[in-house]
Amino acid sequence: MGQLLAKYSITEIVVFLVLLGFAIKELVTFFDWAHNRLKKTFDKEDEREEIKEQLETVVSHLSDIETHFNTMISENRIKYSEMQQSIDLLIASDKDDIKAWITAQHHLFVYEYKCIDDYSLDCIEKRYSHYKDEGGNSFIELLMSEIRALPIVSVLPEQKGVGENVEDKR
Predict the structure, then answer these.
(1) Is the pTM of this model over 0.70?
(2) Distance separating alpha carbons of residues 44 and 50, to the nearest angstrom
């Protein structure tokens, strides 16, 4: 230390130590910067891996949702088809019921009474309209033309005395 003091002055030693301290501080700062830079780079790779894993999870969930959605669509198509068959059967049954009812009314009014009242004719017309709307055939159309050709009366023979006359309102 004596040689150091003989060769260099106190001021030079202090300046050297300050410069050495400053250099060490800058070196530490550089290592911290380099460390943080490397850490960020590797963290980005880790972050990318994490994002990639999350995306794979989302894609897997979307695939599951798509499968579930396709299953629901298939089930709904089957249910729709079953409902359509049921509706078609109900319409066919309703047409048969209306056809039988109009046939019975035709026989009653054409063959038995040989006349018809306003209300009965209106009811038959409405049922015939439903029959046509449901796609009924022309068999009933012939019966309807015969019913429409009957004389319209205010009171049916069953409501009057047996031997009384019926009046035609046309």
Answers:
(1) no
(2) 9
